[in-house]
Amino acid sequence: MIWLGIVLLAAIALAPLALSLRRTAAARGRQEAAIALHRAQLGELDRDLADGRIAAAEHANAVLEVQRRLLAAAASAEAESRASSRTPVLLALLVVPIGAIALYLLGGSPDLPAVPLADRIAAAHAREAQEAALIVQLRRRLNELDPHGEQAHQGYILLGNAEASRGRLQEAADAWRTALATRFDPTIAAEAAEAITEVQGHVTEEAAMLFRQALAQSPADAPWRPMAEKRLSELK
Length: 236
Hints:
It is a single chain. Helices cover 78% and strands 0% of the residues. The protein contains ten helices and no strands. The longest helix has 29 residues, at 56-84. The chain starts with a helix and ends with a helix. It has two domains: 2-107; 117-233, Serine Threonine Protein Phosphatase 5, Tetratricopeptide repeat (Alpha Horseshoe), CATH 1.25.40.10. The chain is mainly alpha-helical.
């Protein structure tokens, strides 16, 4: 079934290109343009002769030269145009669908069964509900732990990561703050500061303090250092 859809989409996409082969161009060809230019130059030469700007012998020689050059160029260009004008279009009609199918076979999975949109939405909602339930369980477990213990510290870091992955940056920042109150960690401080900045829309005093503390206690090759430095530069 997917191959039928691919064929239909390819036909729709290439239909304007194919139809262009059946239409006759409305614009004048090169030969007609050359003839028009020839006539205009002849008229200009006749006016120059009438006004006395050129002699009769010069007029005759100029007319012959213009006729020879323009007619020769127009005949050559028109023959070349007729011979090659459709070649690129025909090549595109063949190469484009073949190339598209080849790329799909390399990176696609045509044998996989189709999944209806409703099923995908339902699966996404189920995952969100499962994540929410796990976070509720984690919070309950954290409430039972010593808030100053190492287990609570790691648990609040995990909670912050989970909330951040769901896009709940305020909740993530709150969890990381609690973890930092137990033991300072430069990476967690930088993540908390960035979350606070994203929520507030600017670098707050609290976020700036966390960024500075994180930079002061982190190694020189910490991957988040450029981000923290950039944020602090926004205060200037």
